[in-house]
Amino acid sequence: MSVVQRLAAGWLVDHLSFINQCGYEICDSFACPGSVTLKTSTEGCHATSAFAATSSGDGPISGPGDAIETECKPTKSRYVFHEEFFDVSKPHIAAAPEEQLCQECPGMNLTEVKKRKRKCVLNQGERDALEYHSKIRKLIWEGTSQLVQEGLKSGFLHCGTAELSCQKNVLPGHIGCGLAELCEMAKQFPDVSESCQQAVHVLHDKTSIAEQDLLSRVTENSSNCAKIVVLMGQKYLVPPKSSFLLSDISCLQPLLNYKKKYDAIVIDPPWENKSVKRSNRYSYLSSWQIKQIPVPALAAPNCLVVTWVTNRQKHLRFVKDELYPHWSVKMLAEWHWVKITRTGEFVFPLDSLHKKPYEVLVLGRVKGGQKEALRQSEDVLPIPEHKLIVSIPCSLHSHKPPLTAVLAEFIKPDVECLELFARNLQPGWTSWGNEVLKFQHIDYFTLLQNE
């Protein structure tokens, strides 16, 4: 399970464990006892051939054309995510001793904070952020402290650096073939009539997919094993029981053609901010563009909607006051994702005036009929007003922690779930985005063993 500890305050989550429990096992070939298996594979591919040869003493050696009765069993290759991506052993910015989690929660001294900033006047956004932080700070501190203490007791977290591994492997650098750019290029592809093409492409043993097929319809792995897809010469792992659409916001029709209604929709919009503009890491969307996402057409009655929001109060107000009403979603709660190190410290000082060690999730439900709402309330627990999701963050930008386990008690079992603006895949979920395969690239994984 990805949930290490569950308390009234929230959950301590093991993100790495969740990824590795997704079932990244590839069925390679059929190996026979006493046989020799010849692998004719290129890097990352698993095309294999095999022949059996007996070598018992003076007996004749059977040729490849001879029939041999022997039991053959499939072999599997298991992939695991590079654990070094979660090796956050020290805070990105060290906190003062009185701000460490091992101390009792000190009251926030706003006067002292303002003194530190006195030489330059706070703008309205900074004042709004400071006011919001003062309201939630105690909840963040106390809840995180409780979950960290339980994590230390269980051994998931380690107090001090003595027990941490010193082994460092060289991690892959730039990975992938430019998925967002490929989605932009796809707009130049000739239109394919809906009557000439199916809405779903089901993955079989063949791993290569034409770019036009991948970008124009939902791709589905309905099997119990992972699959490898090859796109523009790059290899990506697709977990079992998952589906995805690789496209940008202008090409959402294939997702609507999939004709599924979702009981949970998680959204991680590319919010506009100064850092994104400076770094040019990814394109961002305006508030108007985000409102055009057809959430009402994708949502089942009483669908749970969860939106990731940056710490800019402008974006938080937009979600609560404009976006959710536009989608007919009733806002129910604000949760927080708190990022800690392997020793249980905040990755940034809690009272930092710049970066905070937490992000916001806004939860709501699509407004449905009164009967439907009553039936829904009988099956699931009500959404708590505030919860914490505490985890060691991935060092890869925007690799959010999994919400599958923490949302399980608030949605009915075995329902359809959707993630919008996803950068990775999950079993049991449909994922959409112009970088939806980004963190599925095979170079982010290690081939652990052959079984």
How are the secondary structure elements laid out?
Elements (H helix, E strand, L loop, with lengths): L2 E5 L2 E4 L1 H6 L4 E7 L3 E5 L8 E5 L20 E9 L28 H7 L7 H31 L24 H7 L14 E3 L8 H6 L1 E4 L5 E5 L2 E5 L3 E5 L6 H5 L4 E6 L6 H6 L7 H5 L3 H4 E11 L3 H14 L2 E11 L18 E9 L3 H10 L8 E4 L12 H4 L9 E4 L8 E5 L11 E6 L1
GO biological process, one term: methylation
Pfam family, one: MT-A70
GO molecular function: nucleic acid binding; RNA methyltransferase activity; site-specific DNA-methyltransferase (adenine-specific) activity
Q: Give me the CATH fold name of one domain.
A: Rossmann fold
| Model regions low in confidence, pLDDT < 50 over at least 5 residues | 30-65, 192-196
CATH architecture assignment of one domain: 3-Layer(aba) Sandwich
Strand content: 25-35%
Question: What is the count of β-strands?
Answer: 19
Helix content: 10-25%
Report the structural category: alpha/beta
Distance between the termini: 23 Å
The protein's oligomeric status is single chain
Radius of gyration, whole Å: 25 Å
Mean pLDDT: 80
Shape: globular
CATH class of one domain: Alpha Beta
Number of helices: 12
Question: What is the spatial order of strands in the main beta sheet?
Answer: 1-2-16-14-15-13-12-17-18-11-8-7
Largest sheet: 12 strands, mixed
Any idea what the CATH superfamily of one domain is called? Vaccinia Virus protein VP39
In a few lines, what is going on in this structure?
The protein has 451 residues and is an alpha/beta fold.
Walkthrough of the structure:
By secondary structure, the protein is α/β, with parallel strands linked by helices. The protein has a domain at 5-23 and 142-160 and 179-448: Rossmann fold. The chain is 23% helix and 25% strand. The protein is built from twelve helices and 19 strands. The protein has helices spanning 15-20, 110-116, 124-154, 179-185, 211-216, 253-257, 274-279, 287-291, 295-298, 313-326, 370-379, 404-407; strands at residues 3-7, 10-13, 25-31, 35-39, 48-52, 73-81, 200-202, 218-221, 227-231, 234-238, 242-246, 262-267, 299-309, 329-339, 358-366, 388-391, 417-420, 429-433, 445-450. A twelve-stranded mixed β-sheet has the order 1-2-16-14-15-13-12-17-18-11-8-7. A hairpin with a 2-residue loop joins β1 and β2. The longest helix has 31 residues, at 124-154. It is globular, with a radius of gyration of 25 Å. Residues 30-65 and 192-196 have low confidence and may be disordered.
